[in-house]
């Protein structure tokens, strides 16, 4: 028994030494795995957006509390680290036009003022989507589907009203969101059922007319999957062949801390070969297991019943999982830097772990850690590494 205890003690000492004795360097993954702190000891004073500005713009999705500065620490992070903002919810159809012709611009106006005040660019998200769009859009007074003409008119009015109001404020619009199935075929959404397959063309036509100075994007999740990206590229090429403007493909990038690096790189290469710009539009990396691996993605209707086993880090993330997250972020940004000439922007989907949608999707009530700033608004330790990565790439360039 005594022998066993002594052996155990030696093993513990050896493990402690691995963490404490190895010098850390910001460029080596192995060394990073040995860091024991999860937050930067000093506040990060250099800014992510500034470091990455030679390569692409660095954005974030903001919520109402950032914009009103009720979440003051969150708003400070936005001001310091990000140069381009997307409204997490405030420009979606249900927020802008909850009932017919009743437009509510409170949240979006506040965002535009915030962006002006702090000199940030803005991305408009989103004109046409099958989610977070109220039923009235597709229905008549009896609750039956409206005609193609009526729905096209509603789409046109919505796009023109929104794009017109923010004509000088918005740099680019997500025109259509998530119109594809996982195999790259067209989703049978209400838009598709009522208008037909050309609803996407119509949305881009209207957007090009209403927002002549803004870039226009098709945006979707799981575009690392070859079939789905093939579908997105085919769609973009169809538009282009018809003379309809589309400027880029938005890759949402809701991944885990084991992101699909190789597949993503192949997808990026395909977009480049097809001649479209790339935006990484909604980056976050969950550290939690997905309850059904076949459904990984960002289908917001998923709602699994809460189970303890899927919420292992409610009192703090494990070191191993945190290090996997750090490595995943570094690897992804290395990849983005490699293709920086074709990537216009990388946007994080949320400011801090405190208010990420990942805490309630696909299972409500979990404690997730997918972002760059923790629940106390502290930069995670690898934020410094991400900044150093861009700075050294800039020196080489
Ligand atoms: C999709 C949408 C976003 C957002 C996320 C989850 O990716 O494009 O607007 O709703 O789901 O928050």
Automatic annotation (TrEMBL):
Any Pfam family: Glyco_hydro_10
Signal peptide positions on this chain: 1-20
Disordered: region residues: 24-43
Single Gene Ontology BP annotation: polysaccharide catabolic process
GH10 domain sequence ranges: 42-389
Matching Gene3D superfamilies: Glycosidases
Enzyme class: hydrolase
Compositional bias ranges of the Basic and acidic residues kind: 30-43
GO MF annotation list: endo-1,4-beta-xylanase activity
Catalytic residues of the enzyme: 282
Keywords per UniProt: Carbohydrate metabolism, Glycosidase, Hydrolase, Polysaccharide degradation, Signal
Superkingdom, taxonomy of origin: Bacteria
Catalytic activity entry: Endohydrolysis of (1->4)-beta-D-xylosidic linkages in xylans
SMART domains per UniProt: Glyco_10
Entry EC number(s): 3.2.1.8
Family: Belongs to the glycosyl hydrolase 10 (cellulase F) family.
Name of protein: Beta-xylanase
Organism, as annotated: Brumicola blandensis
